[in-house]
Amino acid sequence: MLLGLALEAAGMSRDDLEIVTADPATVVSAFASGQVDGAAIWYPFVDVIRKANPGIVELAKNADFPQNQFPAAFVTNPATVTDRPELVGKFIAVMKEAGDWRHANPAETIKITADFLGVDAAVLEQEATMGTSFTAEDLAAKSKDGTINSWLDGMAAIYVKQGKLEKALPAADYYTADLFVK
């Protein structure tokens, strides 16, 4: 998505590039060995590339497009929401509590995650600076005022524009803001 936004901002399109799709490890090694001139990849892989090529130039990042948010989401099928509302409510409550703890304890969250994944915490520290953390209260307010729907609608519009979706559904048709707020 960011590649498409960056190209559009520069008056370019994907047709102006020779794009090769590859898994992250292949992208990192191809860039490090000079087989490709650029890479559209996410953190922490940007930092891995930067270690091998200290002089790289980061052309675009999330912060360059503040009007766009790319939220993570938890999904279930509609039948679960209808047939098992108590389960859905408990799941949302646990996720809110976990998100609030993560928001209040970023350093400890990084350490726990690094230990769990068996990776160097320094890699995750850099990645953590790339995202925005919200409290459950913040997300509830943004759910009530339609902000989250606008984020999701904006993301869907990017997918349509980039040919990933034929047609986008309005976020109000699938984001259960009322359940999150409740």
Automatic annotation (TrEMBL):
> Coiled-coil stretches, from where to where?
none
The SsuA/THI5-like domain sits at 3-108
Q: Where in the cell is it found?
A: Periplasm
Primary subcellular site in the record, as a coarse category:
periplasm
Query: Keyword set for this entry?
Result: Signal
In the UniProt record, does the keyword Signal occur? yes
Q: Which Gene3D superfamilies match?
A: Periplasmic binding protein-like II
Which InterPro entries does the record match to this protein? SsuA/THI5
Record flagged with keyword Signal: yes
What protein family is recorded?
Belongs to the bacterial solute-binding protein SsuA/TauA family.
Protein name, entry field: ABC transporter substrate-binding protein
Q: What species does this protein belong to? A: Paracoccus cavernae
Its lineage opens with: Bacteria, Pseudomonadati, Pseudomonadota, Alphaproteobacteria, Rhodobacterales
